[in-house]
Amino acid sequence: MDSTELRIAAVVPCHNEEAAVAKVVADLKAAVPGIVVYVYDNLSTDRTAECAREAGAIVRYENTKGKGNVVRRAFADIEADVYVMIDGDDTYEASAAPLMIKTLLDGPYDHVLGVRKQDEDTNAYRSGHETGNKVLNGVVGKVFGENVEDMLSGFRVFSRRFVKSFPAVSREFEIETELTVHSLHLRVPQTAVQVGFRDRPAGSESKLRTYRDGTKILALILGLARHERPVAFYGLFGTLAWLVSLILTVPIVVEFYNTHEVARFPTLFFAFTLMLLGSLAWTAGMILDGIRRSRHEAARLVYLRYSAAGVNDDVAAGDRR
């Protein structure tokens, strides 16, 4: 199927982006003929909605604060073959969208990540953001066993089957992390494309808070590790409990062997309790791992209900028959 025959939708989350959103909409329309741009106004107090509408976007409203809530709503409401997600602050080069869409279709891939390449004459990354991004990329790579180039990028292109199998649990800026982890645990075909990244326009203010949002993202990663790697997560605590129990028990056993008396009964009781807790932790991890496998199988079945990007669902259904 030719890209001109596809339904291509852009999702642009916005909160007080009056100074930038019109240019983002215009750039997307110029770069991708026929694209339908949906601007989701997330409790803006300025003229974001009016500016977006005047630029030719379809404006919708999400009245629960947070980028994650916007993405959750947009992915549920919008029907398309290809989805482009880009921030409304005009920091990403929208002109990269055609290459990202072509890459998605040629793969075919389900997720194309826009890896930010900062302009040489700008300092678009705020202090601490680049370092924090690299640290979080490394943490996710260690937890999930796959390298991530730019986990926090807000410029991505998705297939329909990716979008419709994505649960979107996060509420705020953790949504990028959740998108990345979803692609990793579902093992969808994906790739990355470098995109230009520049300073915000004058009058536009970043909504990111380095330490607050970084802490939330790290907490999300730990939570996802608990759900996606339960044997390793609970096994770590179980093994530590066993080791402490062993360290406490050995001197008591040696003393009993020499004196035939248990002089530190409370310590022995505590050591046995730790041994039991360690065993329970390992058991919980193994049970939750079985549940995880069931969840992944269910998500995979939902994913497989849709055809690959650029393939007509009716044709794909006929091929399966």
Automatic annotation (TrEMBL):
Transmembrane domains' residue ranges: 231-254, 266-288
Domain Glycosyltransferase 2-like, first and last residues per copy: 11-163
Transmembrane helix listed as a keyword: yes
Keyword Transmembrane: yes
Molecular function terms from GO: transferase activity
SUPFAM superfamilies found in the cross-reference section: Nucleotide-diphospho-sugar transferases (SSF53448)
UniProt keywords, alphabetically: Membrane, Transferase, Transmembrane, Transmembrane helix
Matches recorded under InterPro entries: Glyco_trans_2-like (IPR001173), Glycosyltransferase_2 (IPR050256), Nucleotide-diphossugar_trans (IPR029044)
Stated family: Belongs to the glycosyltransferase 2 family.
Name of the featured protein: Glycosyl transferase
Originating organism: Nocardia rhizosphaerihabitans
